[in-house]
Amino acid sequence: MEHMVAIIMAAGHGKRMRSEKPKVLHTVCGKPMIDHVVGAAKEATGNQPVVIVGVGREAVMAHLEGRADFAIQAEQKGTGHAVMMAEGYLIGKEGYAVVLAGDMPLLKAETIAALCKKCKEEDLDAVVLTSIANNPTGYGRIIRDTTGNILRIVEEKDANAEEKLVKEVNSSVYCFKIEGLLNCLGNLSCNNAQGEYYLTDCIAQLSASGAVGGLIADAEECSGVNDKAQLAAAEAIMRKRINHKYLVDGVMMIDPDHTYIEDGAVIGQDTLLYPNCHIRGKSVIGKNCVIESGTVIADSTLGDDCHIRDSVIMESTVGDRVTIGPFAYLRPQTVVEDEVHIGDFVETKKARIGKGTKMPHLTYVGDADVGAHCNIACGTIFANYDGLTKYKTVVGDKVFIGCNVNLVAPAMVGEGAYIAAGTTVVGEVPAGALSVGRSEQYIKEEWADEKREKGELREVY
Ligand code: UD1
Ligand code: CA
Fold first, then answer.
1. Which residues of 1-16 are buried (b: 16+ CB within 10 A; e: fewer)?
2. Which residue lies with its CA nearest to atom 1 of ligand 1?
3. Atom of ligand 1 nearest to the CA of 9
4. What pLDDT is stored for residue 51 in this prediction?
5. Cα atoms found within 13 Å of the Cα of residue 382, Cβ hemisphere only
6. Which band of pLDDT confidence, cut at 50, 70 and 90, is reported for residue 344?
7. How far apart are CA 80 and CA 184, in angstroms?
8. Which residue among 128, 130, 172 has the greatest number of ligand 1 atoms within 8 angstroms of its CB, and so is best to mutate?
9. 3-class SS at 283?
10. Residue 401 CB partners (closer than 8 Å, separation 6+)
11. Is 361 one of the catalytic residues?
């Protein structure tokens, strides 16, 4: 059986990132760079890739566990040396090895597949993915003969003045016939300006003994990330790609350059996203919603026809025709049923809010089950925590809760009950009852007027 394995080099320092985090774990549109590469490699080859890890390998391996095989390169002696570390996965196998770098998040699966296809169909020993760079500084240059055949790749530091003028550069992505690659790796030396084993030298060997091809790809797709400026540039390109996909699918954005969607979200037709919205993780948003500026929706589900303004929704489920915000915070395990209105400065956590219930402002609902068609007025607090344990509060359907009410959990308010403003509810309020729990009002006639006459009031107008 013909084998197709991807080898992803990710052992280098990434010093220019100036970060304690391994380079390939830095994210592009919410996903670590290495995930983009592993995903593309897997899609193109159909197999789990081998990742060469070195610096920061504990973190990289823990992150990729179950999604990749690993080869350890304890000391970074160059790209050729890196691939040598994966020999165990190649020896005795017939077929092709695709070599990739872990810092190329923009590389598409279809490009990797085209590279492999060319290698197979034209029966080549290797195909190099190249691109034409406006500024080739820093890259290995592709040296071709007068008929256009690739002879070798020369690194910037080893190149002469004439070679440095070449604009075609090595992307560091290749497809090799496994047998030939193994032979070349055995012949590599580190007799060059950097004292490293260059994988690029395999191309010169294979060109001399067999046939090497080149595939010219889009420079943008081939750009690697070496520092945080390039990371931001890659993010902008990836964002454009992702947003374009959603736009074509019928989602609307006022300003796609400032709309942040992590690939993997599902968004319905005619939903309108304002600038500075963030849709993260595995979120599902229905049709005809309006999501206004500043909203963050993470790992949550929203129904159709919702209107969300400047709010944060985390790991929650929201029904149809719900209005939320501005400035609401739905924390994990909130379930909001259809036609609910959650207004400004409302926070919820581990709570069900029944159909049609309104809580227009300044409310905290935690560890609660609130029925349908309730009205929860300004300043209601579900006091769920006694300092040791959290307790649940259950509110039935059609309950009216006045302003500034505390519900001290575990509390129970029966269907249709009324709670007067300022009440602190403890225990159970029966269905249909009124609960008033506040001290009686005291009035002293003319008190203020008398004080004022004596000049004993500090008047502020
Ligand atoms: C390499 C290529 C160069 C190409 C450029 C494209 C070589 C000799 N040069 O140069 O022709 O234009 O990429 O970006 O291959 N790595 C290891 N172990 C090592 C060294 C590197 O795993 O010992 C990994 C790095 O983590 C990185 C990748 O290999 O993911 C490329 O290494 P890097 O040092 O960036 O190579 P360049 O010098 O840029
Ligand atoms: Ca590089």
1. eeebbbbbbbbbebee
2. 172
3. 22
4. 98
5. 29
6. very high
7. 9
8. 172
9. coil
10. 374, 375, 376, 377, 380, 395, 407, 413, 419
11. yes
Residue from 118, 105, 108 nearest 176 by CA:
118
Nearest to 44 by CA among 93, 114, 99, 106: 114
pLDDT in tens, 178-209: 999 999 999 999 999 999 999 999 999 999 99
In three-state secondary structure terms, 239 is helix
Q: What percent of the chain has pLDDT over 90?
A: 97
Task: Report the distance separating Cα 377 and Cα 387, nearest Å.
Answer: 26
Instruction: Quote the ligand 2 centre to 102 CA distance (angstroms).
Output: 9
Both tokens assigned to 88:
């165990």
Which pLDDT belongs to residue 402?
98
The token pair that represents 237 in the structure block: 């390109």
Q: Token digits for 63?
A: 């992150």
In this predicted model, what pLDDT tens digit does every residue of 449-459 receive, in sequence order? 999 999 998 87
Distance 198 CA to ligand 1 centre (A): 9
Q: Is the peptide bond before 326 cis (omega within 30 degrees of 0)?
A: yes
How far, in Å, CA of 359 to CA of 188, rounded?
Answer: 71
**CA distance readout (Å), 293 to 246, 278, 296, 310:** 18, 9, 9, 6
